[in-house]
Write a structure and sequence with these properties.
mainly alpha; Arc Repressor Mutant, subunit A; three-stranded antiparallel β-sheet; 3 strands
């Protein structure tokens, strides 16, 4: 008989919220860009060819869920630099691995 992997309820609830937050093409592309290094809103919006306000909206959702962090407190929103919260990414990877086993 195959061993079942059990996901703790708290881990599942956290992961469910994270998956909802990343369930968007623009947000997934933002995460892909941030894999290598932290970038400003301006850099992200230029690379994805989207308006700065659209980029900021998606970053706010990712930040609210703790997936990205603002690495500087620049007053000009376009110059704020965002990076990945590695702990949250590890959680998502862990849940995916358990589910896919």
């Amino acid at each position: 008989m195959k061993k079942q992997t059990i996901i703790k309820a708290t881990t599942y609830a956290s992961a469910k919220k994270l998956f909802r937050a990343i369930d968007n093409k623009v947000r997934l592309n933002i995460l892909r860009l941030l894999e290598d290094k932290a970038l400003s809103v301006k850099e992200i919006s230029e690379k994805l060819n989207i308006m700065g306000v659209v980029c900021s909206t998606h970053l706010a959702i990712l930040k609210r869920h703790g997936i990205v962090v603002c690495e500087n407190g620049a007053l000009d929103l376009r110059n704020r630099v965002y990076g990945l919260n590695k702990d949250k990414i590890v959680l998502v990877n862990s849940v995916c691995e358990k589910v896919l086993k």
